[in-house]
Write a structure and sequence with these properties.
The chain is an alpha/beta fold. The protein has 5 domains: about 30 residues; about 100 residues, RNA Polymerase Alpha Subunit, Chain A, domain 2 (Beta Complex); about 80 residues, YbbR-like domain (RNA Polymerase Alpha Subunit, Chain A, domain 2), CATH 2.170.120.40; about 80 residues, RNA Polymerase Alpha Subunit, Chain A, domain 2 (Beta Complex), CATH 2.170.120; about 190 residues, Rossmann fold, CATH 3.40.50. The chain contains 13 helices and 30 strands. Helix 6 packs across helix 9. It is elongated, with a radius of gyration of 45 Å.
């Protein structure tokens, strides 16, 4: 047993010697092999840089060049190790690019780029050996970047500033024909949900179709998000309505309900806001939205809804057909008083929705011509001798005129305004006015004026007069009278009423 044990030990002891011999042989073989000359192909990616301003390469160039090298194995080995990023960069800056055609030797470019590394090596060949670049003029255009991302914010959190995109526009370049069709550049689509902190992200841009180059391939977005908390802030209401002597604020004592970032809760107070009456947005009859002005840079949202009622004096002016109410109204205009012509407004409103559809439903589409404009003679034929249909039309038109009148009033800046209407009392429009001026004249004179003005017959004018309120009854309902009989001067009468209205 001892004999066999000794034999195994001697066998194991010889193994290290064997492996050492193999290793030494391998080293000598490698050294011998690396000392021999080899021909080895290497592939390089071609990139262009420093393309001249206002120039672009329009020709197709190869993306790669195959370089064949010859050298000893040692040099080739170290060359390949040191040159793992194999890019052949062609700098166009050193070339004269005034010509539209430019020849570039890829072998020369390779030698110049690697001259320190090729001392012990030969460049056998490059494939392709050279390329031709064709240049053309490049046009520039600035276009906006359109966001295509959506986001949602976690409950009790909110935006603490504006969502920003940097940049919000980029420069594109290319041929003019290609650029003309590009009006914007879009980001890729992205969705961010349940944000509870600031989001900074980078989005790639979608390249337009065709040969259009972008000044950059991506943009950065920033969505500021913070935790918010509700805060109630009492404020003092301020108002300044030009031309209006009376303003009623509703409510008189207001409280703002503000969503404010938690970190800035103590910084926000009544001095952070200024509440001013504004005539920018009409809400409903007599009411406007209040303009809320932030006096601080703290980002917050306000839930409170405030309104004001402006009581500008509204004066009506009416009179029977041919009385001259329009002429008198124009005298008031010269004094700087805004005048609303209800009859003209009614004609215009009947050519627009919703009255147009309602009238067609009542009388058929024949009352409108091919241009969808009201044929007043056709409408008149339906309602002239039909009191029921006339009442139906008035019930449709008068509310729309009243709404339009209120919207018009909001835009005016004067101590009072005039509303001119032929059937002021008949339509009930006087109920919303502070006073009414009546222009009166003898019936025979009114008929003469109407016939001359409208180029019509006496019978038609008399028919209209019979449907209007009696002159005597109308005058009793008026607050002021102006005689327009051709003998009494009009201007003194107008000035007297104007002075009275300005005093009140």
């Amino acid at each position: 047993m001892n004999i066999f044990k000794n034999i195994r030990l001697r066998g194991n002891a010889s193994l290290p010697v064997f492996f050492i011999c193999v290793f030494v042989s391998l080293v000598f073989w490698i050294l011998y092999s690396l000392n021999k000359n080899y021909v080895y192909p290497v592939t390089y990616n071609i990139t262009l840089q420093n393309t001249p301003f206002r120039k672009q390469v329009i020709s197709e160039i190869p993306q790669q060049v195959n370089v064949t090298l010859r050298s000893r194995g040692f040099e080739l080995f170290w060359f390949l190790i040191r040159n793992r990023e194999r890019d052949l960069t062609v700098d166009l800056k050193k070339y004269a690019v005034n010509n539209e055609k430019l020849g570039i030797s890829l072998q020369s470019e390779f030698r110049n780029q690697n001259q320190n590394r090729l001392k012990e090596m030969d460049v056998v060949s490059t494939l392709p050996d050279s390329v031709w670049l064709y240049l053309s003029s490049k046009y520039l255009k600035t276009v906006p970047v359109v966001m295509q991302f959506t986001y949602s914010i976690k409950k009790n959190f909110g935006l603490s500033g504006k969502v920003s995109m940097i940049p919000d526009s980029i420069t594109i370049s290319g041929e003019k024909s290609q650029l003309d069709g590009v009006q914007e550049v879009k980001t890729i689509e992205a969705t961010y949900e349940n944000l509870d902190r600031d989001l900074k992200a980078t989005l790639s841009l979608i390249s337009p179709a065709g040969k259009v180059n972008l000044s950059q391939k991506e943009i950065k977005i920033f969505i500021p998000v913070e935790e918010f908390i509700e805060k109630k802030i009492p404020v003092t209401l301020n108002y300044s309505v030009a031309g209006s002597g009376k303003v009623i604020l509703i409510p008189e004592n207001a409280e703002l309900i503000v969503q404010v970032p938690l970190k800035r809760y103590e910084q926000l107070n009544a001095d952070s806001f200024q509440v001013m009456v504004s005539a920018k947005r009409y809400l409903k009859e007599g009411q406007l939205a209040v303009e809320l002005v932030r006096k601080c840079n703290i980002y917050c949202s306000v839930n409170s809804k405030l309104f004001y009622r402006a009581l500008m004096k509204k004066i009506g002016i009416t009179g029977g057909i041919g009385s001259g109410k329009t002429f008198v109204a124009n005298i008031f205009k010269t004094l700087g008083i805004p005048v609303y012509d209800a009859d003209t407004a009614a004609k215009q409103l009947m050519n627009h929705e919703p009255l147009r559809s309602k009238l067609k439903q009542l009388f058929g589409s024949s009352i409108y011509n091919e241009h969808d404009e009201l044929n007043r003679s056709v409408l008149a034929s339906f309602i002239f001798n039909d009191e029921k249909k006339l009442a139906t039309v008035n019930a449709l038109v008068h509310p729309e005129v009243a709404k339009h009148f209120n919207e018009w009033c909001i835009k005016q800046h004067a101590d009072y305004i005039l509303k001119e209407a032929a059937i002021m009392f008949e339509s009930g429009a006087n109920k919303d006015l502070d006073a009414v001026i009546c222009v009166t004249a003898p019936e025979i004179l009114r008929i003469e004026r109407a016939i001359k003005r409208d180029n019509t017959t006496e019978e038609k004018i008399k028919a209209i007069i019979t449907r209007q309120l009696n002159e005597e009854d109308r005058n009793k309902l008026c607050n002021y009278l102006i005689k327009n009989d051709g003998t009494a001067p009009l201007l003194p009468q107008v000035l007297k009423i104007h002075e009275l209205l300005m005093e009140k």
